Amino acid sequence: xxxxxxxxxxxxxxxxxxxxxxxAEASGAEALHLDIMDAHFVPNLSFGxxxxxxxxxxxxxFYRNVHLMMSRPDLYLEKFAAAGAQTIQIHVEADCxxxxxxxxxxxxxxxNAIVLNPETPVERLDPYLGEVDEILVMTVHPGYGGQKFIxxxxxxxxxxxxxxxxxxxxxxxxxxxxxxxxxxxxxxxQFVAGSHLFGQSDMRSAVEAMREAVK
Length: 215
Ligand code: DX5
Ligand code: ZN
Hints:
Layout: E1 4-7, H1 17-26, E2 31-37, H2 49-58, E3 63-69, H3 77-83, E4 87-91, H4 98-107, E5 111-116, E6 134-138, H5 154-163, E7 168-172, H6 177-186, E8 190-193, H7 195-198, H8 203-213
Helix pairs in contact: 2-3
The structure holds D-xylitol-5-phosphate and zinc ion (ZN).
The site of D-xylitol-5-phosphate (DX5) has 22 residues, from strand 2, strand 8 and helix 7.
């Protein structure tokens, strides 16, 4: 099973966004995680397709993983695809037909993923397990970076890993050197980290340390 580390741009210095994208790419991380918030699905606003396009322009070879925390992701799929998203992640709690939208993401030539909030039972994913390239289990309530990891989410990873031994299973929220190990033991192989990675002056060493820790 491959390991992937994804710095979350939400924790970057927005005054130097281009440089921060470059720093994340140079860290040796496999992909950039871009958090899109609509102030409706979550109580916060972040950024839109222009920042995804900036990432493509700044670091064309750095894979773009786009997490849509939106009530109506269906209205924006084409815009994010055109901006350069390579994986689009949509929430099972969103207000749209998931089967249709997961199919549409693939039809745009992208990888799809389904995301689960901490309070949502993992069984809600059952109808979609045969239709997804990747699953993201949130380990904080989405909306803000720098929150505390919710360990009660770990059994969801075990449930999913037991059913889908080969699938990419991602965690997002409160991930640091210690919590990444807990998530890896429970079955995760992709690790999003915002404040932990962008908070380091040497992001490369931090990415290497996490890669070692989750082995
Ligand atoms: C939370 C976002 C996360 C966030 C993680 O709503 O989905 O991707 O950037 O930030 P940290 O790693 O600081 O918890
Ligand atoms: Zn995220």
